[in-house]
């Protein structure tokens, strides 16, 4: 019996052998002193008595705030043993729930014992709501709830199961049975935790064999006496998140390495050295044993090695890879001797213009997708660099050659002549400089036009190239003026070469503007002795002046300048002093 019921009993007189016919006599003083609220109601529901703890409730009944009481009183009068009922009332703070015990008395009176059970009921409802909320959250959450016992085995798994397993397939088994890496020590900490842990990543195997990464949070379970009995927690699948993080990290690493490679290439001013820098940077960035770059020769159309980073035995490996790459598609991968080789063609505007060979030691891990992507991007960048180098070569060629004849132009000739002359000073070798000028060339243009004039210049170009050695320099200084440098030629050799040129130049007469003014050449020669210390400028001046002396004395001949420092005139062939 509740406490207020017990208090109410104090209001009853002592009795023994109570029977259903006996009458209970209530002591008014006892009812007044009772701790529990006590009211006596007449059959109309009007309070006749209320102790100190029931006065406010009695006033509310008199004011008609609790009309339900009238029905309760009538039921109690007609119900043997009384009535027990829960009534909920609207109050200022919200609602209140009273447990009302109504006991019939003599003279149609009713003893009413109210008890406020609002808190108990609210707590009970909160507990029920909390349990339902937990169940709902577990059901809709992507995480799964679990609990292990003191042996580390699952004793509970949320109904939906996990990792592709049903809940009943997991219960009774150890989480260690599903570990991807059996050496993972974090799993022991998480699933047998004796302290709270949060979001520890654990790699497990799904039912289909695939890997899954779970972020696991757990807390230990203890008995009232402090004994650890197991662990419970939540785990949610972060596999996709980890995959995305890995992809982002790979992309960032790829960008970092590509930035390093591209910056190395761009920092090199000389385009001819860009490819060497690219080979070095690529090998370092990808931890290659070596990297070789090949470029297509535009003259021969052959692909030739232009840069290589690595030990000496890399070259033949790279050449073997290139050969097999040409027999396959744009990418080739194989093991050659003690190396793993990945070869890529490089392109510019969809045209193969070279190749990049990446060479790894045999014990190097197989390149992953990120590294392969870098190699592909490097090949694309090198394709662009090869084209830039080719463009540079073409620009250099254009800047160094005569547009009509393809011979060295004035600037290029004198740049190279300076190097040749400096080498002669060191080697004490002779050489000869020949100035060649066409006779009566203006008349050709005036009579036949500039196209015929250009044809005559090209004819002389062929004569000069056909009658000099590859080591000699032949240049067009401008207009109808040419120059030839003969390495290692003394005076006799120079005179012999001049006679040959004069003989061959007879063919130019077909371009003449008039029979009495045939097209021909005049040649002025300056010979440098082996022991001479004559400055280059003086040598050039002697040759140039000699050529003009020949033209002044009748053209169609050659002359050799007097030695440096001599006041004697040049020796011109077919004059009084024959050569």
TrEMBL record:
UniProt xrefs under InterPro entries: Biofilm_reg_signaling (IPR052155), GAF-like_dom_sf (IPR029016), GGDEF_dom (IPR000160), Nucleotide_cyclase (IPR029787), PAS (IPR000014), PAS-assoc_C (IPR000700), PAS-like_dom_sf (IPR035965), Rev_trsase/Diguanyl_cyclase (IPR043128)
Disordered, as annotated region: 556-579
Domain (GGDEF) ranges: 429-563
Pfam family, one: PAS_9
Basic and acidic residues: bias regions: 568-579
Record CDD domains: GGDEF, PAS
PAC domain span: 198-250
PANTHER family assigned: BIOFILM ARCHITECTURE MAINTENANCE PROTEIN MBAA, DIGUANYLATE CYCLASE DGCP
The protein's name: Diguanylate cyclase
Species of origin: Thalassospira permensis NBRC 106175
Classification of source organism: Bacteria, Pseudomonadati, Pseudomonadota, Alphaproteobacteria, Rhodospirillales
């Amino acid at each position: 019996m509740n406490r207020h019921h017990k208090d109410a009993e104090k209001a009853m007189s002592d009795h023994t052998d109570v029977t259903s016919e006996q009458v209970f006599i209530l002591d008014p003083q006892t009812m007044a002193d009772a701790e529990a609220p006590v009211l006596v109601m007449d059959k109309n529901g009007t309070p006749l008595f209320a102790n100190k703890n029931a006065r406010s409730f009695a006033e509310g009944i008199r004011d008609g705030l609790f009309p339900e009481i009238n029905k309760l009183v009538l039921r109690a009068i007609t119900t043997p043993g009384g009535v027990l009922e829960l009534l909920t009332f609207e109050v200022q703070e919200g609602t209140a729930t009273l447990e009302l015990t109504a006991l019939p008395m003599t003279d149609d009176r009713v003893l009413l014992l109210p008890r406020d059970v609002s808190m108990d009921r609210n707590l009970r409802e909160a507990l029920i709501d909390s349990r339902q909320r937990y169940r709902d959250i577990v059901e809709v959450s992507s995480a799964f709830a679990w609990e292990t016992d003191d042996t580390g085995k699952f004793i509970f798994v949320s109904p939906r199961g996990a990792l592709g397993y049903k809940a009943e397939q997991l219960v009774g088994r150890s989480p260690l049975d599903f570990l991807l890496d059996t050496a993972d020590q974090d799993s022991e900490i998480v699933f047998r935790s004796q302290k709270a842990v949060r979001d520890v990543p654990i790699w497990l195997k799904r039912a289909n064999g695939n890997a899954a990464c779970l972020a696991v949070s757990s807390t230990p379970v203890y008995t009232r006496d402090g004994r650890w009995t197991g662990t419970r927690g939540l785990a949610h699948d972060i596999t996709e998140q980890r995959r995305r993080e890995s992809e982002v990290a790979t992309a960032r690493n790829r960008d970092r390495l590509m930035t390093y490679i591209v910056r190395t290439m761009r920092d090199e001013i000389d385009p001819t050295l860009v490819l060497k820098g690219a080979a070095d940077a690529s090998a370092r960035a990808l931890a290659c044993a070596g990297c070789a770059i090949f470029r297509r020769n535009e003259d021969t159309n052959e692909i030739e090695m232009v840069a290589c980073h690595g030990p000496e035995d890399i070259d033949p490996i790279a050449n073997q890879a290139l050969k097999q790459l040409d027999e396959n598609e744009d990418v080739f991968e194989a093991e050659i001797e003690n190396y793993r080789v990945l070869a890529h063609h490089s392109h510019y505007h969809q045209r193969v213009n070279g190749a990049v060979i990446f060479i790894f030691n045999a014990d190097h891990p197989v390149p992953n997708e990120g590294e392969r992507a870098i190699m592909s991007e490097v090949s694309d960048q090198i394709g662009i660099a090869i084209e830039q180098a080719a463009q540079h070569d073409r620009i250099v060629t254009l800047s160094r050659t005569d547009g009509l004849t393809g011979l060295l132009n004035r600037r290029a000739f004198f740049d190279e002549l300076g190097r040749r002359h400096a080498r002669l000073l060191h080697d004490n070798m002779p050489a000869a400089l020949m100035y060649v000028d066409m006779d009566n060339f203006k008349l050709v243009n005036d009579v036949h036009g500039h196209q015929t004039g250009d044809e005559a210049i090209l004819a002389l170009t062929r004569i000069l190239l056909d009658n000099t050695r590859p080591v000699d320099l032949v240049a067009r200084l401008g207009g109808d003026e040419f120059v030839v440098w003969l390495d290692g030629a003394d005076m006799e050799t120079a005179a012999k070469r001049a006679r040959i040129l004069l003989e061959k130049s007879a063919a130019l007469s077909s371009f003449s503007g008039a029979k009495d003014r045939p097209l021909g050449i005049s040649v002025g020669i300056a010979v440098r002795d082996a022991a001479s210390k004559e400055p280059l400028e003086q040598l050039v001046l002697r040759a140039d002046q000699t050529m003009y002396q020949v033209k002044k004395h009748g053209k169609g001949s050659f002359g050799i300048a007097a030695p440096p420092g001599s006041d004697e005139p040049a020796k011109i062939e077919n004059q009084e002093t024959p050569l």
